[in-house]
Queue: 4 jobs
Job 1
Amino acid sequence: MIPIKTLVCRAAPAALLCLAAGPGLALGPEITRKGHGAAPGTEAAAPRLKPLPPPSLNFYGSPGIIDTPSSEMLPDGQYAVTYSWFGGTSRYNITVQALPWLSASFRYNGIQNLGLFGFDTYYDRGFDVRARLWRERGWLPEVTMGLQDFAGTGVYAAEYFVATKRFEGAALGWGKTPGRLKLSAGLGWGRLGSSGAIGNIGGVRPTFVGGSTGGELATDQWFRGDFAPFGGFEWQPDERWSLKAEYSTDAYVTETQVSNVFERKSSVNYGVEYQYSDRLRLGAYYLYGSEIGFNAQIQLNPNNPPTPMAVPAPHPIIPRTQWATEASHWDQDWVASEAKKRQFRDLTAETLKADGLVLEAITLTGTTAELRYRNPRYRSAAQAAGRAARALAQALPPSVETFRLVPVRRGLGLAAIEVRRSDLEALEFDADAADALSAAAGVRDAGPLPEDAIFSGELYPAFATSVSPFTKPAYFDPAQPFRLDAGLDFAASYAPAPGWRIAGTIRQRLAGNVKNGRASNSVLPHVRTDQREYAQFGTTLENLYASRLWKPGRNLYARATAGLFESMYGGVSGELLWKPVNSRIGLGVEGNYVVQRDFDQRFGFRDYRVFTGHASAYAELGKGYLMQVDAGRYLAGDYGGTFSLNREFNNGFLIGAFFTLTNVSAEDFGEGSFDKGFRFRIPVDWLLGKPSRSGFGLTIRPTQRDGGQRVAVPDRLYGSVREAHRKSLEEQRARFWE
């Protein structure tokens, strides 16, 4: 065996090439921009001058000047968090470039001394969406349409069309000046039509357009009322500095006329911004002739990890023709010897272990080998399969030609990836290896475990323990917008046989203030809004359950779970999933009979029980988009459906949004009118540059209510099953050779 070395991976047109860094080995030119190497599976850019940063963001978290928008779009997949403040108004914004031509934002505002609704600081939530109508080309500017605060109370509601044109310094006749000038002009309604109006469509427009509870789409008010022109420019003399000026048509009527938050003396704003790093931008401004403001922007892109990925070098695939001189080493009668098979099992297990994989079972014949393995290290199922294939090529005798690779999760075979050993030998150094092997390999249903499979002697029964930190946030309490509990989770699990698992977690809160949150005012059964009542206790039993996963038939996966599922509910649950390995479609059904747990989260229960369940449809739409539709009964006894759309990048970075509509009226639901929110997940390996399947993320709702809520059951099937099916493997095919 060759020694394991550290790899520096670069993308080639068809496959990711990894160069082992050893003494005297040159790795080639460094990446020209730190943290901006080519993403796995994409073509590496040739060395070039450092580009200017992505578009800067305005006070609403969208591309813009200062308080007005521009038509620019962020790079595809960009994720931005911004904070802005001026004149007693603070805005926390999260913006995601969901498509190259579509972005969405969530905002949480705080307005001091507004004098409305009885709060010293009035907090409000809102959503924005922007769609590019056409790109900039020639002398034609880029044009974008935007809806601002379209699904909240409408405090900041506005609609607009805006155009932006960019000019390089040389194109303006400034010689070799490297700067860039951006001019933006638009027409706005609502907030952006409240000063300097030049016309009116549809008469007087109300200040609050989202309904009494907020969250309703006031489509009858879009592009209605006064409209006014706005505009501005941004001058970038270099890649770090920007100078800005704009004419704003937001009169801030509520803040300056209804209340006395600040004094608006002018419609002209000025500012200067500094790009501190690739991801952090800071700005200072003079606004409306009376106020000083500042803005901080953090931008992340899944395709640009902060640390280049470094992985151990894979085992080489040694062509069997080189083994001719060692033929006597291989006993040609090994197939009939159980001792020899166990020897090959142990050798394969050791080789897999060096790559962070775990052998679960192996089945050997004279010409084929089926390997069932666990993948606790690599996020990419294709990368794990490649490592498993190399382990077999190194450990098994020359007569074995066909490898059947079966990734396993908790004893459940997810798929069977069939590759020929001769293809591995022929393609290892081929420039088109990724595409060629993908075309030659087969992906099929895993099927049942062969009767003559040889299990690892070290796996069952299995007992494991872990200690990990936990955080549990609570959002958007008017008295304190963000609360947090933190502490430690002590977890243990026992697996007596493949597919079976008994697990539990004791949670110890060490600090936090969720227990001081507001009491529930819901008219529905309190299925989620008693969060503060569950946060009163220091030591709790977070969960304790037994589960079984198995395959009842071809393309079918099943789960049964009983016990304490989560902090609020226990009961029994069953799930059945139909997901062919070569299909982008999946169908599932789940039923749960649950009882609400006592607030102290020990073994007692409250007097609330309900049957809840859903039928689900899943569709992989391409380019990482996953759509899910669930229909059924929710925890409060309401009936309806949930629509979810996620985008998952090849490196595990995920962004998504969802909404739920049920037969609960907006008035009974309460603040927000219906359940909705967004989620994100950042993988640990994206941050650290080391292989890992771990990640951290959040699901954020504008408000937590009781309508449209589901129970959290461990080990739900779809997410883990789909990651080893053809669609995911094809998208990750270049990583098979890493």
Job 2
Amino acid sequence: MVGAIVIIIAVIFILMSAGKPVSSTSEVSDESILQSSDELVSQGSDELVVNVYGHTGEPETGFDPLLGWGCGHVNFEPLVQSTLFKSADNGSMINDLATSYSVSSDGKIWTVNIRDDARFTDGEKLTAEDVAFTFNTAIGSNSELDMSNLEKATAINDTAVKFELKEPQSSFIWKLRYVGIVPEHAYGKETYGSNPIGSGPYKLVQWDRSQQAIFELNEDYYGEKPYFKKITMLFLDKDTAFAAAKSGEVDIAEIEISHANQTIDGYNLVALLAARALGVSFPMQNDTGKNSLKGDPIGNNVTADIAIRKALNIGIDRKALLQGVISGKGAVEYTGVDQRVYGNPEARINDSNLEEAIKILENAGWKDTDGDGIREKDGTRAEFKLYYSSDDQTRQALSVAVSEQARKLGIKIDLVGASWDEIYANQYSSAVLYAYSNIDTFTLYLQYHSKVADDTYKNPGLYNNPVVDGYLEAALKSEGQDEATKYWQLAAYDGNTGYGPAGDATWLWLVTTDYLYMVDETLDLGTPQRNSGADIMGNIYEWKRVTQPARH
């Protein structure tokens, strides 16, 4: 009851802030939470009200691509800005502003030709100078963009731009895919995010901080124009959004997995694959007393033993986790990138095999000599800590389930719910339940290439395998994406070694989780892009309304 009241009050506050009268709170039920707001409710067939938390959340710095909008931790369609490339429904790259591109034989020079009919919403023509300005400004402007390998971008003429890289990087195509182009003549770092000028399919016309953003169709857009002329994007948490869907006052609401088995009249539950992998990172080094640059401890004598890592990968029942923790809304996961085109099926193993897992432990010398149910080896107990975000119920549930299954193997996992600051301080000496969803292939390089303990969350186990390093470097130096894919796959497993469970078992990957949405049954979302569940609006050009919504 208290939770319901909190939800109701939260939405009422949004409506009052938007300037619409609301009756006394004692008379408002969750069936009519948003009913009185004409500004928030889409009454026309070509108007849309959405709450897609995973797509954006609210951008703290506004709708500025150079500060993370559209191309930060979760890549998504920026709506206001155009990008050089887009994704097709099957996940492949297709042109947007770009008309073609080429890469030099040494992989360091990328030349992109762009169309000549794109204009910004202030009427100015978009040229290669704007593209070069965007990427040059992006260098060092936002750590999530990671433009550290870009030396400079130069406009060759109005319709061609040259990108000079410090080192070959086949994955640079993903930067060209998601970074929205801003106008050189109208960009100000402090002001642009609140009043963005772009050349995308929509223009921002209103932003009420902590409440909503309203987008209207850009009538001068050069590409295929979307069906919807107005989009109101609400900034509600997922529980509040679910209540708004129950009232029938939003078209799309992203919801928590805890609501996966609930139904709402007039809505369809849409589960979109996102290849958002959750798994346990293992410290790969022994504890020798070393510390990171910040003084955090390095090493764990239990997880550094490959027998422990192999036994957990083979013994854990991932299907049970999938069904029991996330209601089947996802898939089992073995390598962290199983669903990607650059995933390697040969790197996977057959799991849920307690007998084989126990044999691995026994042969490696891990035995329960004192009968307490926990194995030991050379005086060391098979026990380690597993950290997870205390704010994430799914990660907590997965951690509990993994620890319970591990006890059947004689391995004790001590659970620690903590803040991210505390997690990062312990990631080199303890296991961590992490989630990864970035589709940029450069993530693989950052995740598994050897590095120093620099206290960033990439490669938290400090994995160091020269053979894998070689494959990752070869992938970046590849001339084409097909060749790069071959090396990305070999890094996972080459028949002898690799980061996957068939190789060094650097992680205990568990499941991938779908992104869940309650979608008004009057909407046709076309064909969602492959593995881009966080970017539900990536194919906004295909959306339409098939019947008039029946609002309460």
Job 3
Amino acid sequence: MIEEKVYLPKELSWLSFNQRVLQEAADKSNPLIERVRFLGIYSSNLDEFYKVQFANLKKYVLIEQEQVHSSSNAKSLLRQVNQKVIQLELQFDQLYNELLLEMARNQIFLINERQLSAYQENWIKNYYKQNLRQYITPILLDSHTELIQFLKDDHAYLAVEIVCENNISYALLELPTDNVSRFVLLPSEVSTKNKCIIFLDNILRYCLSDIFKVFFDAKELNAYSININRDAEYELNTELDSLLELMSQGLKQRLTAQPVRFTYQKDMPKALFELLINKLRLTEQDTMPGGRYPNFKDLVKFPDLGQKNLLNKKIPNLSYTRFKQFRNAFDTIKDRDVLLYYPYYSFGHVLEIMRQASFDPSVTHIRMNIYRVAKDSRFIHAAINAANNGKKVTVVVELQARFDEEANIKWAKRLISSGIKVIYSQPKLKIHAKLFLIDRKERDQIVRYAHIGSGNFNERTATIYTDFSLLTADPAITDEVKKVFNFIENPFKPVSFNHLLVSPQNTRLRFYEFIEREINNAKAGKAAGIYLKLNAITDKDMIDQLYRASCAGVKVRMVVRGTCVLIPQIPNLSENITVTSIVDQFLEHARVYIFENDGKKDTYISSADWMPRNIDNRIEVGVKIFDPIIKSTIHNIFDIQCNDNVKARIIDKDAANNYVQRGNKKKIRAQYAIYDYLKQSESFEKGL
């Protein structure tokens, strides 16, 4: 056993990941508007961090305060987190100002309400009347205002000081970003290549008089930006009749949950600041001063302005050649397993399979599970069309998918109204697996076709997330996928799996067995190694096993996008472990596990990261890859990622996020190199 366990706090590791996102905004090799959008990704990530991880950390601090003999570990960590956030926010502000200058060099100007020409002033007044006024309803702040009840999480507001002759009043304006863009392109009265953009915030600042003059004779109107982040967790009252009721109750709790961060414009008058924090039941320690724009997440949607040189080059989707060589998708899959890797391959292939299944006379039953789907999901529409064609359809809807609960409740109701059997997970046991199973009657027998993947059935995110999809008709796998659906319906009924890794049934035990085998092989002088592609690794028991493997001489190579609690390269503990992280144009989302097994290389793709929740508290599915061509493809992709020397950062105890040094080696940018590799593979397939 390991006497000394060494881990990096997961909160600090997560912030280190978000620092890598900031590095992308700073990287001058990235096109300008993409750099601006990385600032938006950073801001959105930080909001989620406060709503989840920071909120939980504050709870631990409160628990420690109630304990007589407390070591104050949580309080110390909270201080470190706050210091790190302040450091990152300073970097953000510096980068934002640098990018403003860079945009100006490219004739793009972000202007405020004080920089408008007379022509633009008139245009904005008309824009407000025609496009904004219907969405603007001020909330007057008085002694009766229950601010904590209605102030929306993650929304930007202007707190307005209304100075009249004999008194000062206060009001709130919500920025209607759900209805209109945060960025408005202003017209110019003369022909020019300059493009002027104004924040929605500043349009409202300019129009304050038009908003308030109907009731207030104000001498002065001043607006200050604010926003809050609320605790995203909720408690489920299991006495309610249905999970739909449970989730509806939980969402209401989130809407009124205690704020965990209040960001405000730092030059706000003290009286207004104190009024707001008192109504939100916060202390000054719960607040964070900022500038005129406390919420920058909308920078993700910064307009492209038609200037292609300021954007990433579009990588055209590859078409999977073998689908064209057979009459339908089922014949293709039956001939040989199919591996798709998004966004290099089009997600349209999976949508086409579901479309064909929805009207194929031979298809009798479609089972699928959804976690996060697109707003107007073609995947779900195919399920509804299948039901309309008389097929049996079963859909597992995960109502507890964080921040997608409300959308999934609506989908569940829509599916039920279409005559589809809808199944929900047990409270606090999320279903994160990415499965569908199609039963097809062929020559009086039922042949099943299965999908096991690492990503959601979401045509929007499939264009920006890297994910694997395995499509197979192998009975050894499809029979077990059917057992997973049975397990979802009856989670307390005993079940076993041979070819699938199914959390919380067998995943942890199988991992322990695989790692132990590598340790024994290393001791016996056989080929041994562990190769992992993950989004996060925080499970300390699994990390201990990897430390044991390292001490036994097993080489462990990992590519981890986000949180990595494991600390590599510690002498006599993790010196045989190397970890890098890739942050680039696409969000790395695929999970791959490869165990050397004396040269046989057992290979799995999965929906599960190495976190306690994924291994013990969710239904996750990983599948062993048997097809030798697909195994080779996965190994080659992993090797390319391990050799990235453009966008890969070194993960170490210092969390410095140093880039992998290229030296005199050939430049390898993994995401582009993988596209070239797959494109070449498809060209070879066409030539056969």
Job 4
Amino acid sequence: MNKQTIALLGNPNVGKSSIFNQLTGLRQKVGNFPGVTVDKKIGTTSLDNDHKATVIDFPGTYSLYPTSSDERVVLNTFANPSSEDYPDAIIYIADSTNLERHLLLLSQVKDLGIPTVLGLNMSDIAEKKGFELDLKKIENAFKVPVVKINGRTGEGIVELKEKVQHVISTSSESTIKTFNFSAVEQASIIDIKKLNENINDYQALLWAHHYDQLPFIDLSSKEEIKNITEKHDFKDMRLQIDETLQRYNFITPLTQEAVKEKASEEDSFSDKLDRIVTHKVFGPLIFFGLLMLVFQSIFSWASAPMDFIDESIATIGEYLKGVMPEGWFTDLVLDGVLAGLGGVLVFVPQITILFFLISLMEESGYMSRAVYMFDRLMIKFGMSGRSIVSLISGGACAIPAVMAARAIGNWKERMITILVTPLISCSARIPVYAILVAFAVPDEMVWGVFNLQGLAFMGLYLLGIVVTLIAGFIFKLILKADAPSFLAMELPSYKMPHWKNVALTVSEKVNTFVMEAGKVIMIVSIVLWALASYGPGDNIEEATQLAEKEAEFKGFNQLETEDYVASKQIEASYVGIIGKGIEPIFAPLGYDWKISIALVTSFAAREVFVGTMATIYSVGSAGDDIAPLRKRLATAVDPVTGKHEFTKATAFSLMIFYVFAMQCMSTLAVVKRETKSWKWPVVQFIYMSGLAYVGALIAYHMF
């Protein structure tokens, strides 16, 4: 028997991910559905000793009448029997505590004619709330096997597999009538089925409703369906409403009979907690308190493993330098490949901690409350409550933050979130802020409580947040929406996180970051190494010889000589030529060619700025220590003009520049991947670079 395909379907927040993890464990991977950037989670499960099946976890949807790209994925698959993801059976997951709302999609699924098993999740919570479910009534009404399951504990999973294997092997799918086709619908169905004999009546009806949104229908067929709907006066929205009302006329009496709720005079724990957590005053305070905890955790907990990774990469580099012969290949491995690898791995601790904490908030049910609380506010700035997740993630790294925007259904809100999220100061800006703040802001206490440098740090972060909201508002006026924006979601009950789900989610996110961002950073690092290692003709060789003579004349020791030679080599390389070439562009901001070089190299990653400045200013070996570089910057004098090369005005100008600039090629690459176009990364780069230039210009002349 060939491996079967099983679809996991259900409404959002119903616990499908938990069931998916119970079914597949570590035997899962993440890809994309064809033609879209929506995640496709695929895993393998054993139905019994002889039969294995592929399980596809489809995005949560409320019906087969989609309002978002996630929901369209479900429609595109189930309206097309030829789809590569079309299943042999469906596991439909419903919330036992709110059954009526979850049965609408099931009634539509039944009309597709695919063998289905109904899994009633959260049965333990339903029992605690006093619900009594008559499984036999539900089973008889929908003519599907019904199984009580618990995604947290795995209870009922074995029985669920048995039922799925049974419906697949018997290929039995009993039909039920939850609504009757109108005369207009019947006539349209007959004509549409002439175009494709493989679809059933309900799939033909879905074609009539959505033909212009179904990518698998060719243009000529779309034109024919359009003519059919016009001929029969097919009123799309009116017929959808009639269908939904008819289905609820079937569902509501059933749930009233099959679900009995014991009277309870006291509010549930979730209701009591929600009065505080979603309160208009206490709610935001709690949220920002948790947000502070998240940021504190990212920066404090991650510092030790990040230092360990840095030191390990450096140790490996020293070892390889000792055993590999001198030459261009060794330089490529050490300064290109190894440096790029370090640039990827060093952020893994922060990404891990960030998604661990976000997963805890999602698993516990809190994140849904945060989305609900901030939806009204975020709409004013062109985004939605779901954008909060991306904006929070942006504090660690814009790459996973941009990827997190996939959860936003509305195209306009998702696009605005992607375009503005990199304005949130990420962890890669911290080394840049650290050296610049330490140089320009005195280490003094204000009011005996606040450190002035700490306030400057906070000010840079707040500036990024404020401009993020302003940019969102502007894009809201520019971009046109593909559908009206509204928030429709359930607030799940509070519960203890399921640690297996948390671990799988975190590992998936970290793996995605390493694989997606890693490839780009590695390539960029190698390209920048080549540009910094080579120059036209014998430029670098001549610069090296001259620098060695000058170092000997000035009495430099071996370390100082190496640093001085390195700075002159960069100046003579292609990167140095580029830096000097763009110096006139940045001169109004107070930047000389040295800073211009640092701006070019930091396109690989913002934190490269510090290392580049250290090398150029001949403190290369102390590049990770702020104090020597700060001292060298303070004493650097232009030999021609006699003026200081680096001033407070220059430092403040650079701070503002790095708050706004898109100095991250990896983020641009991920934006391209998420939007399926180079148009949006280009727009993002242009507007952020413009903001950075104007802001830095103002800052330079203010100070």
